[in-house]
Amino acid sequence: MSAQIIDGKKVAGELKLQIREDVENWVKAGNRRPFLKVLQVGTDPASTAYIGAKTRSCNEVGIDTDTTHLPDTVSAKELKSVIKSFNENDGIDGILVQLPLPSHLSSHDVIESIDHRKDVDGFHPMNVGRLAVDQPTFKSCTPAGIFELFKYYSIPTKGKHAVVVGASNIVGTPMSVMLSRESSTGKATTTICHKYTRDITVHTIAADILVVAAGQPNLIKAEMVKEGAVVIDVGINRVADETRERGYKLVGDCDFEGLKQKVSWITPVPGGVGPMTVAMLMKNTLLAAKKSIYPD
Q: Packing angle between helix 141-152 and helix 273-290, nearest 10 degrees?
């Protein structure tokens, strides 16, 4: 068999067209255009590239945005003071602090200083807690994007055995929560694995749906998955490749070439989950502007 490709770029494009229409209708109704404030600490090249992608998407869907740059020497107190000014600015709907932060800053403390009603990344403890108890919330963009892919391609999760590799607060943990929800999203039996899991193949080979967000290139090989599984590869890793002009290529956490001959569905890297993450950020920003999650 040969896997069907889950085209995140295509689905994100369609989703952004719908968001653009919703934004324009919102503005035509006499409302202010949604506004996303991005905050970058330091000059990490990968972070700058991610912000560029987010800015382009804002332009595509009609959301206003700008980025505040702070030096990587900024103190926690100074950073929180800037975030506080964003919280209090009624013209800002969504606040995104680009991660990772310099080592002297606690991402937990910084995220917690964002007003949860403007936390369009879905990382604030209030939003994570509401997700866990199945209340309306800003969902973490990557898991939310994956569920949009399941919906678009009619990939069922109910009653399936889902295995998540990677337990980060950004992807793995919220993904496992959403998959295991009985009342709304997933209805799957869910296993979560991480770097301390012994004999990880025992778990991955049992998965009907395998979501991999470990940050380790080609971690999952063909012999580690069962025939016909659905594989969602969240990893984006740079590996050296002298044949490329830029000197590297992007690969996922899964051996795409090996797996595509065995599984039923698979996301490519790039062009799979990544574009969906950015599209869901746009959706969350519109929800924040409309005060759909947290009405006044």
A: 110
Place of tokens 């949860």: 116
CA quadruple 231, 282, 105, 113: dihedral positive or negative?
A: negative
Q: Does an H or E element contain 58, and which?
A: helix 45-61
- Give 243: exposed, middle or buried? Use CB within 10 Å, 0-12, 13-18, 19+: exposed
CA–CA separation, 252 and 240 (whole Å): 14
Strands 4-5 and 64-70: unpaired
Helix and strand counts by DSSP (H, E) for the chain? 10, 11
Grouping H, G, I as helix, E, B as strand and the rest as coil, residue 250 is strand
* Alpha-carbon span 195 to 165, nearest angstrom: 9
Domains of the chain (ranges; CATH) run: 31-115 (3.40.50.10860), 141-274 (3.40.50.720)
pLDDT digit string (tens) for 206-234? 999 999 999 999 999 999 999 999 999 99
Cα distances (angstroms) measured from residue 141 to each of 101, 119, 169:
19, 11, 12
Model pLDDT, residue 61: 98
- Helix 45-61 to helix 8-28 angle (10° resolution) is 50
What is the C-alpha separation between 15 and 97, in angstroms, rounded? 24
Peptide bond into 71 cis (omega under 30): no
Active site residues per annotation: 54, 98, 121
Cβ(74)–Cβ(40) under 8 Å? no
Note the pTM of the prediction, 2 decimals.
0.95
